[in-house]
Amino acid sequence: MERFEEVVSRKGTRSVKWDMAEDLYQDKEVLPMWVADMDFKTPSAVTNALKERAEHGIFGYTIPDAKVKESITHWLENRHKWKIDPEWITYSPGVIPSLHMIIQSLTEIGDHIIIQTPVYPPFYSVIKDHGRHVVKNPLQLNEEQYEIDFADFEKKIKENDVSMFILCNPHNPVGRVWKKEELQKMMDICLKHDVKVVADEIHADLIYKGNVHVPIASLSEEAAKQTITCLSPTKTFNLAGLQASYVVIPDETDKKKVDRYFKNQGMLMLNTLGVTAMEAAYDHGEEWLIELMDVLENHRDYVTQRFHNETSSIRVFPAEGTYLLWLDCRKLGMDQTELKRFMQKEAKVGLNDGASFGEEGEGFMRLNIAAPKSIIEDGVNRIIEAVKAQEQ
């Protein structure tokens, strides 16, 4: 576990998380715990592969060949029991660019697309930016976790003639890993009303013990034909800056349409180092990932217990997946502007604003725990001390 305890300074590396923090929060003392990348070094197998490729010295046009597809298909089958045809794969620089291409190629201007809120902020913009309409199926908050309102899901689909559903699994920010039964209910409704399912499964590998990630496309052959799945090793192995992801599209007609949009936008290949990192991570990164999940689970439990034991004003929802914790701060009795100010100015911790995930996120903040334990402890101490001072 020692490799996950090393504090590596990311300042001066053009890091969004660290180098933008002072400008964003107007305070150099704020501890950034927001952007969804990790403060851990990627597996040494990836670093070594990148060094070897860099030493070659020539970085001309590069294609992901059959070996790269083999690395992807083996990973999906080994980790998620999902056997795919390599020909279903389309490469992309990232999940967000993929969503832009998918929406433009498979829906029309004026179409309605349903999402489950609170949810990853770009889901809203990729819909609105292309003249489509957002339809919300708000997740239902109970005492223990968030649940899907299936009746509302189908009602909204029928009332708005919804053509597409963007699923987030595992869900960002609430941390749910949807169970097979939940996925099947949603798929049955989508099949019934001919709603195309676009599954953002970028956090698929970051699953805590007692939970299992089920790719929604793996439910059945019929489900596969109805689904387009966006995946990447970048969250799993901390490779976001290398921009390497892919889309799995089993339906031949859908794949031709999506591929045409990628081609029309000039997105014809991945960058050389992204290809190298993807292959190395999938071929040699599993042991590192197993160790990472033990570290993250320890961090999740530590943060949860600290808040539970030391303050009644902030509650941590039990994350089943991802390295992002959803903090319920409503008992602090602040509006969202006050809450943001409190975290930045009093606690001096940079978190993601819950309201950025939709109005259902007001009163909440998102905390990134993918950092060495010393940083996690510092951040938790800052928040708890600020809360105690505020309560006095």
From TrEMBL:
Keywords: Aminotransferase, Lyase, Pyridoxal phosphate, Transferase. The keyword Lyase applies. InterPro entries: Aminotransferase_I/II_large, C-S_lyase_PatB-like, Class-II_PLP-Dep_Aminotrans, PyrdxlP-dep_Trfase, PyrdxlP-dep_Trfase_major, PyrdxlP-dep_Trfase_small. Transmembrane segments: none annotated. It is an enzyme of class 4 (lyase). The keyword Transferase applies. It comes from the Bacteria. Belongs to the class-II pyridoxal-phosphate-dependent aminotransferase family. MalY/PatB cystathionine beta-lyase subfamily. This is cysteine-S-conjugate beta-lyase.
